[in-house]
Amino acid sequence: MTDQSQSPVLDINDVSAGYDGKNIISNVNLKVERGEFFGLIGLNGAGKTTLIKSILGLKEPSAGTIKLFECPNKALEGKKHMAYLPERFEPPWFLSGMEFLKFSASLYSKTVEQDVIFNLADSLALDRAALKRRVQSYSKGMRQKLGLMGVIVTGCDLLILDEPMSGLDPLARTLVKDMLLEAKAAGKTIFLSSHILADLDEICDRVAILNDGSIQYIGTPKVLKKKTGIENLERSFLHFIEKDKAA
User: Is pTM, for the whole model, over 0.90?
Assistant: First the structure.
């Protein structure tokens, strides 16, 4: 029997996917290990959204396989251990923040105590009183915080986050990073896409560069910076893809 504690949480093998018969991503191979903080880097149009949709089962690959917890990615057995926060997170406007969080937990047959929710809100500097209000009154930053709290309360082992720092000020970004690092310390696996590479440099064990539809680097931020001789991850990434394009 396979020891699932040693198997990848996310296993992508030779995946190609796209639209109208044209591949946006081609022959993507990627493994995310249990308890890992893994970042996906790429310019707009590189194929990050297509890859994430394929992982979630919202996009049917034209080739290849994707497994979650050793199960086909569309199987409930694997998906029930995964929670997703989209880039453009819009919670149901008619719910209060508290109602949304309790509803999110209930989708995974979990219950969450009010005190736990209040503690999460405090950790993100989200006013407890706001949780009683309908989310239609929330700013973008408040909605992002609520969305992150929503994936945390599910208790899922794999959190897939698409641009979770979008719309957040420096203080909020720091608090979000702290919450995600706490989740990792508790044994969660985190896969996130972000354009804020300074954040990825700080928190990721490994990153993957997706450029022109293919994976062109998988490794630590430190090794990528060493390869390019540039200590700033954002400039190192840009230098890497330009050098690759020239080659």
Answer: yes
